[in-house]
Amino acid sequence: MHPYGLTPSQIEIQEGVRALCARFPDTYWRDLDRRRAYPDQFVRELTSAGYLGCLIPEEFGGAELGIREAAIVLEEVNRSGGNSAACHAQMYTMGTLLRHGSPEQKRRYLPGIASGELRLQAFGVTEPNAGSDTTRITTFAERRAEYYLVSGQKTFISRVQHSDLMVLLVRTTPFERVEKKTEGLTVLLVDLRTAGDRLRVRPVETMVNHETNELFFDGLEVPVENRIGEEGKGFGYILSGMNAERILIASESVGDGLFFVDRASRYACDRVVFGRPLGQNQGVQFPIAKAYIAVQAAAELRNKAAALYDAGEPCGSEANMAKYLTSEAAWEAGNAAMSTLGGYGMAVEYDVERKFREARLFLVAPVSNNLVLSFVGQHILGMPRSF
Fold first, then answer.
1. pTM for this entry
2. Candidates 3.40.50.10090, 3.40.50.1820, 2.40.110.10, 3.30.70.420; correct CATH number of 121-234?
3. How far is CA 80 from each of CA 29, 68, 106, 278, 351, rounded to the nearest angstrom?
4. What is the pLDDT of residue 3?
5. Is the peptide bond before 111 cis (omega within 30 degrees of 0)?
6. Residues 34-59: what's their mean pLDDT?
7. What is the pLDDT of residue 241?
8. What are the C-alpha distances in Å from 180 to residues 7, 139, 167, 378?
9. pLDDT for 196-210, tens place per residue?
10. Rounded to an integer, what distance in angstroms lies between the CA atom of residue 294 and that of residue 58?
11. What is the number of other CB atoms lying within 10 angstroms of the CB of residue 230?
């Protein structure tokens, strides 16, 4: 075992991703950010190397690894200065398909996803009038013989224009007709290539290079054979995917935090002010050191969540808390880096401002940190429900 808890094979993955990322330097990501362009070449190479298919079983062309290995991949991409958000959904949507898809669905889709012939990057849950209250979604799928007719609207659905397939959560029973609010939700696997004009996509501009969209469904036909699991049981299926999502997002935040610490400490050593290295001043040194300690501590909770997930144990609490701690730690590390670099932190050519914007996203997505606190207060500490 490695002294930091990584096995030799995990170290090999880490070093392999690091070497791949070295071929895509800061200038590559800086140019994409300026043009708000998608990193097609990077995603192709990450896929070709097998990293995006690491969770897929070997029989379908994947590496059959765990969420811990997937976390190593995304953490290293972000630590290198890249942005895993361009392709991370392929990993966490695997949780829904791998754990709840039928054998036929796995045979039909997983080999193509593993090889890169099929792109599964879109996850359609959020709606403008529901937000984080997932049970209140109103996009409806009406059963018509051998297909569902989908109508409604989604928002902040990322990578739709760079995906062939989308995991979509819909209502098949109206909210007012279910006994429990989590009932009546169904998961469909939508083939975006054949959607035609029954699905309209409107890009949403944001402060980061994160291709995201509003979706408008107008009688989109989805074959019943594309339903994942049982009708009306989709909320539970989506939760398993969300736990994977929280763990992987937490890993990206760990990578962001380490990026900031790396850049800040290096600058503090190299920059000479008043005849001495900037980092010799404790007022500069201590915030960077505190940020590093916080990122390392948060990473340990991420590791625990990943271990529980890979063991098939309940991990919702740990996954959500890991997402909270890592995103907060990364944000504080970003603040330390910005303060250390001063005016140069604002300069595009130093790349800290780009990563600073990207790190801010995870304080509110894929779940607001305030909702994580509410979850902990109610479900772990037993306090009254706050909403």
1. 0.96
2. 2.40.110.10
3. 11, 18, 33, 24, 11
4. 44
5. no
6. 97
7. 84
8. 44, 18, 23, 18
9. 999 999 999 999 999
10. 37
11. 12
